[in-house]
Amino acid sequence: MSATRQILLALVLGIVTGLALNTGAGSLPAGAIVWLDANLLKPLGNIFLRLLQFVVVPMVFSALILSLTSREGGTEVGRRAGRLLIGYVLTSAIALALGMLVAQWLSPGSGTEGLVSQTATGRQADSLSQWLVGLVPDNPFTALGGGSLLQVILAAALIGTAMRALPAESDPLRRVIESGYNVTLKVLELVLKIAPLGVFALITSVIATQGLDLLLRLGMYVIGLTLALALMALFYLVLLAITGARPLSFVKHFGQSLGFALGTASSGATLPLALGNARSYGMNESLANFALPFGTALKRDGAAVLQGFNALFVAQLFNIDITTSLVLTVFTTGLLVSFSTAGVPGAGLVAMTTVLGAAGLPLEGVAVVAGVDRFTDGLRTALNVMGNCANAALLERLDGRRAEGHTPESFSSADTGNNPAIQEHNADTTAARAV
Question: Which domains are present in the chain?
């Protein structure tokens, strides 16, 4: 069974097992589910996430430096970053607008007045100036140790630029980094062997402890948000088809990353898989090594949909008139916040307080949706990953990077040998040439 099918099967089994535990709680000893969750399910899931996070920072750091010091990478990085940012802003604006339009159409806040007696929780997100200052690490070891992808990207950009200016002197360092990158790929291959178990534990924990009662009470909210996310995903598939970026092949090769994001709700933890899927898809290696970490740190289509949808949901919940001024405030703030939302589970709720506060909407709305946030968090993360990978694929198509009959033969032999997906792709290519 392929890794993608294993992860999807683990998701289904986790949902079924979680429902069985939750619905059968009455026949189990008191506190049995809580004990099982605290001593088995959560530890297993957290161990798996920590193993992936162990790989993320060295992989991103080394991949970016290798991309910047390659023959084409250094001259392309500025132009790529600019075009990616333009694409991010445009597609995030569409995602935000879709969330608001679906919320206005379905009016999910109607009929749920009984839930507003809860009190809000959460803290204010950092201001824009604090966020900008936080991008700059005070030393490279803090950037690598802290796990902030934006700081890692900036540190790698500075070091990679300096290495490119001193090619002869930095060549030994580049060989060390390349060796470290290949070792990291091997570590990732070992970690992914337990991916189905980690995904199973994470999703079972959520369903077993939270159940579906609140999900049913907020059914229209969940349906509406899911619909908005699905429409944005469909938009990307149409865009890929229009530009000739092979949407069906895109879904096939990135399906592993999307399924993993659905189960873990962490786009940062999904990044190593996405880089491997990009190779099997045939994406230019230098572009993928730069664009995917860059997008993981910044690109949040799921967060954009959430902020637009939730703001209008809260306005409907408290019977607040949805004026043009409120819509413009939500749109502007939500667009900015979507780029600063962390790629970890639950980060959307923290960012939501900023959008609601800027629009003058009650922060109690955060507490209303907090109970079902984990159910939709995986869907939003999957859209984040899809948007990031799709923007990289679109950039490659628009740049004309993919020539007719392109194969991953330009990848290093170490990458090809360690990645079964690449071996399968090369075998398919050889067979096609024979035909």
Answer: 3-434 (1.10.3860.10)
